[in-house]
Design brief:
Helix 4 runs antiparallel to helix 5. The protein has two domains: 49 residues, no CATH class; 56 residues. The chain has 106 residues and is mostly helical. The radius of gyration is 20 Å and the shape is extended. The protein contains five helices and no strands.
């Protein structure tokens, strides 16, 4: 839909596929493979093997992983408030996991 809408409003004018750098194509391939195919497969596998409440915690963990990857790969700075926030997110996920274990019983 975005491609169609952008083309209808003239955004396609002056665009050349040949002008797109290889790094952009590789980034797109990475997003398709890891951001969609592998992630969707892993998410469905998790839903089959774990409670949906626990699986849903990935939405909280993903930003923590993104911050760590930014620090590791792009030398981004991790401040005290970011560290405290990440620890709170991890603690919340642990509490959800413990709560799910208590619901299941011994």
């Amino acid at each position: 839909m975005l491609l169609t809408t952008g083309t209808a409003f003239g955004e396609y004018r002056g665009f050349s596929v040949a002008a797109v750098p290889m790094r952009a194509w590789l980034a797109l391939a990475y997003l398709i493979l890891f951001g969609s195919v592998i992630t969707f497969t892993a998410y469905n596998w998790l839903l089959e093997h774990y409670e949906a409440t626990l699986v849903a915690t990935h939405t909280y963990i993903n930003p923590v992983v993104a911050v760590l990857l930014g620090w590791w790969l792009a030398n981004e700075r991790i401040t005290a408030s970011v560290t405290a926030s990440a620890l709170m997110v991890i603690a919340a996920v642990v509490l959800v996991d413990r709560g799910m274990a208590k619901l299941k019983g011994p």
